[in-house]
Structure formats: structure tokens, C-alpha cells
Amino acid sequence: MIGKKKLSVRILVYIILVIGMFWAGFPIFWMLLNSFKPNAEIFSWPPTWISENFSLDAYLKIFTNSEQVRFFINSYVIAGVVVVITLFIGIMASYAFSRFDFKGKNMINTVIVAVQAVPPITLLIPYLSLIVTLKLYNTYGALILTYLVFTLPYCVLMMTGYLNTLPKELDEAVMIDGGSRFTALWKILVPTSIPGLVSVGMYTFMQAWNEYLFALALTKTNEMRTVPVGINLLMGQHSYEWNQMMAMSVLGSLPILILFLFFQRYFIAGMTAGSVKN
Predict the structure, then answer these.
(1) For the chain, how many helices (H) and strands (E)?
(2) Is 241 among the domain residues?
(3) d(Cα 250, Cα 256) in Å, to the nearest integer?
(4) Which residue has the higher pLDDT, 169 or 133?
């Protein structure tokens, strides 16, 4: 009787998981299908699953349009620079929080946590004013500096938790052998912290890649705009380029998907280790 009950519960769990998988995956599947359809066919009724007019026109229009290609270049440059700077500053700051006790440490930690609780939209007007004052409006610097404000606190919190799981004896062993703290950090702790760095790097990349509000407000020309804003620009006053929107959405989703496929085990290990303190 107990065995049958456990089997029934397991079957129910699998059914719920399969339903959840289809519920989450169907919009992505539908987006992919529609990217290969002519624009007029997307809202036809009854809907067509496999189009008889299968076409790559939407993708060709994107790759042959210099403005749309520029959107992807901008997103890659901005997201890449934000990841590098976030990890570089974050690992040093988290090392300080993990290994040293100094005056004001608790207060700084509180401020870092508090920044995470502030809704980004409430900072839009102050940031816009600041960026204009600094003469960075419509530049890479405007978006990079803005995104760092949102990604650095998370990086510091996560990497501090991760470094707390590594014994201080590693640092001490390096210094006994004549090395410095920088040697201990960059040659011992950083290679050991690869799972944590990968998880933080993926989160940072996603934040910078997917962000729309500041990318729209802090830029004014198509030469500086990113993929999310570029997708929105396909919505015209009288017509929408639905197939191109779907194609750009597919292409915009690929970097995140590829990152998860290649670094999934590091991401899970980093998130798990960073959440526990020994």
C-alpha cells in the first residue's frame, strides 16, 4: 500500500513537471515557429504550426540591416564590459568583506543589501540627470556605469558568501611561503572560486543583456541602442513587423541559452556554495 502511494505521488509530480515544462516552453516554441512565417500568416485563424510559406526572410532582413546588427554589437560590448568590471571589482571587494574586519563593515553591508531593494524605475530620473550632467548621454559609458550599480551589489554579496566557504588557511599557507594577499587571491582563491564567478558572471550578463528601461532612456540614436530597444522599434504606428520581432527575440535569447548550456554545472554549484556559510 505504501509503495503504491509513493508511486502515485511520483507519477503526479512528473505530470505536474511535464505540464509546467510545456507551459514555460510553449511561448519560446511559438516564437521560434513564427520567426519563420510571413508577417501576414502569424495571426491567421486557425493558426498554422508548420508554415507552407516557410521563410528565412525575417532573419535575412535583420542580418542585412546595419542598424539591427548594430543593436547586437552594442549589447555584446556593453554586457561584456559590465561582466568584466563587475567580476574584477566584485572579487576584490568580496575578498575584503570575507577576510577582514574593519570599521563600518556592517553598515556597508547594509547599504549593499538596501541597494538591491530599491526598484530601478525610481532611479531613472536621477540617473538621467546625472548622466546628462557628466556628458555621458547616448554613450556606452552611460549604460555601463548604470548597470554596474545594479550588478556590483549582487556580485559582492554572492562572492562574499562563496569566499566564506573557503578556509582562511589557504591564504595563510601562501603568505607563509612568501606570497602576498594578492597572490593568494588571484592564484589560489580565484581559480578555486570559478563556479561562483561563473554564476555571478551569467547573472550579470543577463541583467545587462535584457535591460530595457535605462537602455531606452539613456540613449537617443539607433547607433547606441541595444537589442531590447531594437525589438521595440519594430512596432510601428500602423503595423508591427511581428516575424522580425520574433526573429530578433530568438537571436537575442541565444547568448543566454548558450551560456546556460555550457556553464550549467558551474552555475548550479556557484549558487549552492554561495548560499551556505561554514
Answers:
(1) 13, 0
(2) yes
(3) 11
(4) 133
d(CA 252, CA 207): 13
Per residue in 187-207, pLDDT (tens digit) is 888 888 888 888 888 889 989
CATH number at residue 256: 1.10.3720.10
- Residue 19 corresponds to which amino acid? I
Helix, strand, or coil here: 55? coil
Q: Report yes or no on 5 lying in a domain.
A: no
- Whole-model pTM: value is 0.83
d(CA 214, CA 120): 9
What separation in angstroms does the CA of 219 have from each of 25, 79, 141, 174, 250? 33, 16, 11, 47, 24
Q: Is residue 49 part of a domain?
A: no
| Cα first-last separation, the chain | 42
Number of domains in the chain: 1
Q: What is the pLDDT of residues 75-111, one digit of tens each?
A: 999 999 999 999 999 999 998 888 888 888 888 888 8
- Assess whether pLDDT exceeds 80 at residue 264: no
For residue 92, the surrounding DSSP H or E stretch is helix 66-99
Residue 62, C-alpha cell as written in the block: 535583420
Contact (CB, 8 A) for 160 and 273: no
Whether the bond between 119 and the residue before it is cis, its omega within 30 degrees of 0, is: no
| β-pair partners for 235 | 240
Given a contact cutoff of 8 angstroms between Cβ atoms, the answer to whether 255 and 205 are in contact is yes
Containing structural domain, residue 178: 60-273
From the list 236, 243, 251, 253, the residue with the least C-alpha distance to 58 is 243
Q: Is residue 196 part of a domain?
A: yes
Mean local confidence (pLDDT), 264-274: 57
Q: Are 171 and 181 in contact (CB under 8 A)?
A: yes
pLDDT of residue 267: 59
